Amino acid sequence: MSTFRLELDVGNSSLKWRLMSGAQRLGGGRLADSPAALVELLGAGPTVVHIASVRSEERNQELIDTFVLAGVPFSFARSQRECAGVTNSYADIEKMGVDRWLVMVAAFADCGGPCVVVDAGTALTIDVVSGTGAHLGGYIIAGAGLSAKALADHTGRVRFAGEDRVSLVPGVDTEGCVHHGKWLAQLGAVMAALQQAEVAIGSTAEVYITGGDAPALISLAGAQGAGWQYREELVLDGLAVVMTAS
């Protein structure tokens, strides 16, 4: 009997999924935060569901209720002390977001050496892994969207609208100043983190990048960004590694 595995990356604003049969990817994509959409996915006939979720326990309970009602076995990934050669640096491993843990495991499993892992989503997270798999630390920064929202919410006269403008040139109106500024801050943070990582590791490292804002950052980074490893499903890749090792 074939086993169909539904893998879910449940973020703050959307849900990414893929359906697997062994190592074969049968389908995948991104969904809005909708119980009906999740029920539709379960209608594809998975025999087990594996989940990486950064949502609250209350919101995770909504997922659990859906799986129980559908009668489909499920497991949530958790941050661990060690997995697949990667060692967690946190004294309290439960305080590390599971998405950060999974992308580190996935990147190290792929390259087997020192790496810097960037997840550019609602938050911009950057983590450094040594050649022996030791997590050397990382950074959590407000993502591009949150940065702009903070200006709108907490300033009296910085008002802007319109479509996002992905550029680093100095803005000549408020919209341009805000949008270009947020990308300058995001890319500047990544570049500074890469410099710190090189010092911590003692050598250069492979850069892995994922998340909704990853393509924009790669483009803005120019020649250096062309050498980064863009993996759209890096969280799910790590989920597969962790669940196989468990």
CATH superfamily of the largest domain: ATPase, nucleotide binding domain
Number of strands: 12
Q: What proportion of the residues is helical, as a percent range?
A: 25-40%
Low-confidence parts, pLDDT < 50 over ≥5 residues?
none
Rounded to the nearest angstrom, the radius of gyration is 19 Å
Give me the strand/helix succession. EEEHEHEEEHEEEHHEHEH
Strand content: 25-35%
- SS-based class: alpha/beta
**Main sheet: strand order:** 3-2-1-4-5
Please give the CATH class of the largest domain.
Alpha Beta
CATH fold group of the largest domain: Nucleotidyltransferase, domain 5
Distance between the termini: 22 Å
Mean of pLDDT: 93
Structural features, described:
The protein has helices at about 35-40, 55-70, 100-110, 145-155, 175-200, 215-220, 235-245; strands at about 5-10, 15-20, 25-30, 50-55, 75, 80-85, 85, 115-120, 125-130, 135-140, 205-210, 230. It is α/β, with parallel strands linked by helices. The chain folds into two domains: about 5-75, Nucleotidyltransferase, domain 5 (2-Layer Sandwich), CATH 3.30.420.40; about 110-235, 2-Layer Sandwich (Nucleotidyltransferase, domain 5). A five-stranded mixed β-sheet has the order 3-2-1-4-5, with helices on both faces. Strands 10-9-8-11-12 form a five-stranded mixed β-sheet, sandwiched between helices. Helix 4 (about 145-155) packs across helix 5 (about 175-200). The two termini are about 20 Å apart. Catalyzes the phosphorylation of pantothenate (Pan), the first step in CoA biosynthesis. Its cofactor is NH4(+); K(+). Keywords: ATP-binding, Coenzyme A biosynthesis, Cytoplasm, Kinase, Metal-binding, Nucleotide-binding, Potassium, Transferase.
